[in-house]
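Q: My labmate handed me this sequence with no annotations at all. I'd like to see what the chain might look like in three dimensions before we decide whether it's worth expressing. Could you predict it?
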Amino acid sequence: MKRFFSARLMLIISMVIFGTIGLFVKNIDLPSGEKALYRAVLASLLIGGFLLITKQKIPFGKIKKELPLLLVSGIAMGFNWILLFEAYKYTSVSVATLSYYFAPIIVTVACPILFKEKMKAKQWICFVMSTVGIVMITGIGDLNSGSNHFLGVLFGLGAACLYATVILVNKFIKGVEGIHRTFLQFIAAVGVLLPYVLMTSGINLASLSGKGWGYLLIVGILHTGITYCMYFSSLKELPGQKAAILSYIDPLVAVMISVTILKEGITPLQIAGGILILGFTLWNEIEYKK
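A: Here is what I predict for the chain of 290 residues:
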């Protein structure tokens, strides 16, 4: 019982921290690609240091067949961050986060294709209603939304597609522990993001203010390195449904910060759309015992 509650507390803390990332990312004056690269670098150094201190060796001999999948998931994770950070740039944190939370529905639709699973009536309803929610948060019919807002939603949905890719690829990875998997994915992300940044924006760290450096370190070390470790450690101890329910703390915190601290507007229509996305996505993940 004590183990269960400590795992639950770790997951709650993880979700609260994840929900605040938009507040920090918006205050780092760097291109999105660079933010994603440094996030991966800092997290890799932190987790790599932890593995060294605790003398945890990665069994490369046993997992060599799964390394290509880890590479693919790491690449998807890195570019997922770029698109999410771009979404923060063009629309509010709340709308970007709600768009991003369309990822579980994408996974639900993809599973019948990849794993020969049948979609039940409940899953179709969740897909349709969540899609309606996405249409509502785009603010269609709201003349004040603007093309930048719509572009932000598209970036959020793009990030959701890439995050769904990470989830789906991880379903094929069976023999790699959570922290080893995360570390190797971050290394893969660094490997692909570094040449991407060099070919696009270049390195602009010299232009970053002291405040920006502080926010960057928080995003890389706290939001990524520490929190990912807490997140994956807690998932091993909690039932799937309990973890699914607690994961919705993340978007709720993000919306609260967007409205109260960042003073970003959100319309009643967008609130209703967000409720549809989160509500039907949650319902999709809950299975009732007969």
